[in-house]
Amino acid sequence: MSLRNPKSPKRSPPGRTTSAPRRGSAASSSSPIVKQLQEIEAATGDGTLEFGRGKTLRVTSLDKVYFPALGTTKGDLMRYYATMAPAILPAIKDRPLVLKRYPDGVEGPSFFQQNAGDAVPEHVRTARVTTESGQLADRIVGGDLLTLLYTVQIGTIAVHAWQARISRPEIADTSTIDLDPGEDVSFAEVVALAMKIRDILAAFKLRAGVKTSGSSGLHIVLPLPPGTTFVESSELATAIAGRVAEQHPKRATVERSIKNRPAGTIYVDAQQNAEGKSVVAAYSVRARSKATVSAPIAWTDLRPGLRLEQFTIETMPVRFRRIGDIWSAAMKRRNSRRALDALLGGL
Asked: What gap in Å lies between CA 111 and CA 100, rounded to an integer?
């Protein structure tokens, strides 16, 4: 299946050739799949990836520009995910995926795809799940590189995943708070509010990982005790959001309506913690003009000079080689039931 729009011909940015990887880019990886992608893009843009053991995936239009401001192609995006597979695959392992497809890149039309569809190639992983409406549906499930690259092949840029795994879809293993700033709020102010939330968590001996959203804010993610329900996960995030809004009313709000939010505030969003809801995965590229990434960071990285543009499809592989997978480390040690109960009882 070709994703190329005949009305939108292939474009190559001035001074760039697809055969030569840029310094620090995903194309510089030694992965066999990365090399195959590079060779296919440098030839015709269409070809078949060989994963071994008889597993293949047809890819097309790798030379199509997906991020015009950068000249970044669909092939670059695939090479990024292939390079970052050791980090992103554990983050989405066994999780149903929600796709937002951009078949003509970030400046073209987009649409959501929840179900797997009828034309899923062999070896792409799917599973039957119960949806929010109580219906059974086949969903694409994360965890292997072929499946991940298939989602990119059909135009997906950002990887959104459930906060539960298919083995126990009714059990939440993370709870996410999304700090979403208004247009009149600087990122430095988002960073400052994140540190206030960290203080609240520390008072109850709770741990959380933090990552950029890749869009405009930050995600604070708490690894949950085994057996935590989505009701409990939602109550936890809602309680934390309410507490920070109460303590810092000039900076934080829990008002969902954009038009009703006070000027200069950051929306502390706790609404993505229900069964079937999805959150953008750590290390995922976002559909933004600068190809920013939802980047895991250390709490000590939260400083006034931190910028979202530091973390992109170009810089993230270099950062990963330097510091490793800090997200898996942050999520590995779950919070205790006692700490959750203490917070919920004390708020």
From this structure: 6
Per-residue pLDDT tens digits for 247-269: 999 999 999 999 999 999 999 99
The answer to whether 181 touches 189, Cβ cutoff 8 Å, is yes
CA distance 271 to 191: 20
Say which residue the tokens 């009305």 belong to: 7
The strand pairing partners of 180, in sequence order, are: 267
Name, in order, each residue with C-beta under 8 angstroms of 247's C-beta and a sequence gap of 6 or more: 196, 200
Nearest to 16 by CA among 40, 34, 51, 41: 41
Q: Which two three-digit tokens encode residue 197?
A: 């939330």
Q: Could you write out the three-class secondary structure of the chain?
A: CCCCCCCCCCCCCCCCCCCCCCCCCHHHCCCHHHHHHHHHHHHCCCEEEEEECCEEEEECCCCCEEECCCCEEHHHHHHHHHHCHHHHHHHHCCCEEEEEECCCCCCCCCEEECCCCCCCCCCCCEEEEECCCCCEEEEEECCCHHHHHHHHHCCEEEEEEECCCCCCCCECCEEEEEEEECCCCCHHHHHHHHHHHHHHHHHCCCCCEEEECCCCCEEEEEECCCCCEHHHHHHHHHHHHHHHHHHCCCCEECCCCHHHCCCCCEEEECCCCCCCCEEECCCCECCCCCCEECCEECHHHCCCCCCHHHCECCCHHHHHHHHCCHHHHHHHCCCCHHHHHHHHHHC
| 13: phi then psi, degrees, rounded to nearest 5 | -65, 150
Mean pLDDT per 10-residue interval, the chain, length 347 residues: 35 38 45 96 97 96 98 98 97 95 96 90 93 85 97 96 95 97 94 97 96 95 97 96 96 94 96 94 97 97 94 97 96 95 80
Predicted model pTM: 0.90
In order of start, what are the domains of the chain with their CATH numbers? 26-162 (3.90.920.10), 174-346 (3.30.70.3300)
The Cα–Cα gap between 168 and 156 comes to: 26
Task: Give the whole-angstrom CA distance, residue 44 versus residue 195.
Answer: 49
